[in-house]
Design a protein that fits this description.
Helix content is 39%, strand content 15%. It is of the alpha+beta class.
């Protein structure tokens, strides 16, 4: 069992009390855009925990408030059953750490919009690692990352704050840097995260333009989210089987 804060009762830091209302308002503005663009992203099912203090970036998140989007409850239940868990029921709750998420997170220092895949989402992490062993998928992975703005951050750290052990997208896509970093990634141990960070005092956070900026970030991250997410149609085992059948035909 993962030890984590009780999202419904955890106390929100005073300096982030106003951020709760801002995230609720942001969610209300984002939802029509998510639906109109057919993004298969869903907020937490429990309305009381729509905005909460739980973060997929850390098992013991402190000093942060979050709004999280992930796969549907039905899809989450199916994945957790494949992982040997039957916790998700009609009345149960999804263990956020066990799924890739796109998280909007406010701390006193920063506002971040990140794709996070924790080591506890090992079913999807294995899907990513398996796909990246095939050259065509590693090339696709690079192409997806190349669509992100140069200041997006990429790293394998845990925690709600920005760690020094990260690279900007501009740095990551130089030469063989991406390949070298990916080769150090340990599925089941490392957090994988990619996202855009704003200083908490950035004026854009208080403008009406920010909803569009936030949605653009979500839409960009969703492409990578879909690449990583295990589904019956995005299953690295089937990719290997197809390759093996092709190799067998070539031999015959």
């Amino acid at each position: 069992m993962i030890n984590r804060p009780d999202s419904d009762t955890a106390v929100i830091p005073v300096e982030l009390q106003a951020a709760r209302g801002k995230l609720v308002t942001l969610h209300e503005a984002l939802q029509p855009r998510v639906r109109n663009h057919n993004l298969d992203l869903h907020p937490r099912a429990q309305k009381s925990a729509l905005v909460c203090t739980e973060s997929a970036a850390s098992l013991s998140a402190k000093g942060a408030i979050t709004l999280t989007y992930l796969r549907s409850r039905e899809q989450a239940a199916a994945i957790e059953r494949l992982m040997g868990k039957d916790r998700v029921t009609v009345t149960g709750s999804v263990e956020m750490h066990r799924h890739p998420v796109i998280e909007l997170r406010w701390t006193p220092q920063a506002f971040a919009i990140e794709l996070i895949v924790s080591p506890y989402a090992w079913w999807d992490q294995q899907n990513l690692v398996g796909k990246l062993e095939l050259e065509q998928h590693r090339s696709q992975f690079r192409r997806i990352l190349s669509t992100f703005e140069p200041d997006y951050r990429f790293g394998f750290w845990s925690g709600v704050n920005l760690d020094e052990m990260h690279l900007t997208m501009h740095q990551l896509l130089q030469g063989r840097v991406l390949d070298e970093w990916i080769n150090t990634f340990a599925d089941g141990q490392d957090w994988l995260r990619v996202g855009k960070w704003f200083d908490a005092q950035d004026p854009i956070l208080e403008t009406h333009h920010f909803t569009a900026a936030a949605f653009d970030a979500i839409k960009s991250l969703n492409t990578l989210y879909e690449f990583i997410l295990w589904t019956s149609n995005n299953n690295f085992h089937s990719f290997y089987e197809k390759r093996q059948r092709g190799q067998q035909r070539d031999l015959n």
